Amino acid sequence: MDEEFFYQRPQQQSFLVRNRPVAIAVGISFILLVIVLFVEKSKSIMNLVPKLRGEVTLNDEFTITKIKNKFPLVIRADDPFFGTQLRFSGDINSGFSKVAETVCKSGDIVAEVGAYFGFNTIIIANKLRNNGQYYAYEANSRIYKCLKKSITLNELENVIILKNLAITSINGKCPIDDYASLSLTQTKASKTIKCPCKTIDEEFSGKRLTKLLVDLPEYGFDVLKGAYNLIENSLDLVIVFSFSYNEASKHFNVEEELKTLASKGLRFYVLDSNENYKQIHINNLQQAEDVVLIMAREELR
Q1: What is the pLDDT of residues 145-167, one digit of tens each?
Q2: CA distance 246 to 295
Q3: How far is CA 184 from the centre of its chain?
C-alpha cells in the first residue's frame, strides 16, 4: 500500500491555541475589568443610599444623618465605630444600645458616660421628652460640639443636660484617648488629650439618679469606682454596663472589681431573648469576653 495514503497534512492551529499565554492574559484582564466596573458601579449606587435617606453634608468631615430614618444626628462621615452602619441603615449593631433603650423608661433620671455622637442620647431622651431628665457626658470637645448641635436639631434642650466632661474615679484633670481623630482604617487612638474630669459621686451629690449608662468596655470600671457612694445610697439605681474582659483586664483586676460591686449589694442581670431580666452569678462573668450587664440592688423583674 502506498505510504502516501497514510500521510495526512497537519491541521492548522487556531490563533488562540498558538498564542495561549496571550489569550489567558487577555481573558484575565477582561475579567478584572468587569470586576472593577462592577465594584465602581456598586460604590456609586451605595453612595446614593445616605443621600436617599436624607443625609446632609456639612463639610468634608461632618454630616447630618438620621437615626431610624427619624432623628437627625451630626457625626463624622468616616467615623470608624458606627458611622458607616448608621449612615447606610439608620441603626447600629449594638447590644448595649438595645439593652439601654429597653431598661430606660419615661420618668427616669439618666446619666450616660461617654455619650460620643449621641446615638443612645437622642433615642432615649426622646422617651423622656414629657417626663424625665437626661445627663450626657462627652469629654472630647469636638464630639461634644457635634452632639450639642444634634440636641438642638431634635429640640431636646429641655430634656438633655450636656456636659463637656470626663467621668472617672477622680476629680480634676485627666488624659483621654482622642477618638475624634480616627478614620475608617484606624480604630485605636494614637494620641491623648487632657480634659476636666469628675466622679459620679461628685456630680450627683444630693441628687437623684435612676439609670447610669456606661459603655466603655476598656475603662468602665474606673467610672464605677467613682460611683460607690451613690451605689450604696440609692436603692432604685440601675446600671447598664458593658465590658470586655480582655480589654478591661489591661487596666483592672476584673474579678476583684466585680467582687467589690457585689459587696455593695449589687445583683447582676442580663436580658434574655424575650427582654426579661435573667440573674447571673458573678463567677460566670469572670472570663466573659464581651458582656452587657444590668446591675441593681433591688430585684429586677
Answers
A1: 999 999 999 999 999 999 999 99
A2: 21
A3: 13
Q: Give the separation between CA 100 and CA 241, rounded to whole angstroms.
A: 9
* Residue 134 and residue 41 share a domain: no
- Note the pLDDT of residue 6: 47
The CA-based angle 208-213-214, given to 5 degrees, is: 125
Task: Count how many domains the chain has.
Answer: 2
CA geometry: angle 58, 156, 78, nearest 5 deg:
30
Q: Which residues contact 5 (CB under 8 A, 6 or more apart)?
A: none
**Which residue did the predictor score with more confidence, 68 or 203?**
203
Predicted pLDDT at 44? 46
Does some domain include residue 213?
A: yes
Report the pLDDT value the prediction gives residue 33, as an integer from 0 to 100: 60
Asked if residue 144 has pLDDT above 70, the reply is: yes
As given in the structure block, the three cell numbers for residue 277 are 431580666
Name the CA radius of gyration of the chain, rounded.
Answer: 28
What pLDDT shows up at residue 288? 67
- Domain co-membership, 288 together with 141: yes
Residue 109: which of 236, 215, 198, 249 has the closest Cα?
236
Query: Bridge partners of 279?
Result: 269
Are 63 and 122 contained in the same domain?
A: yes
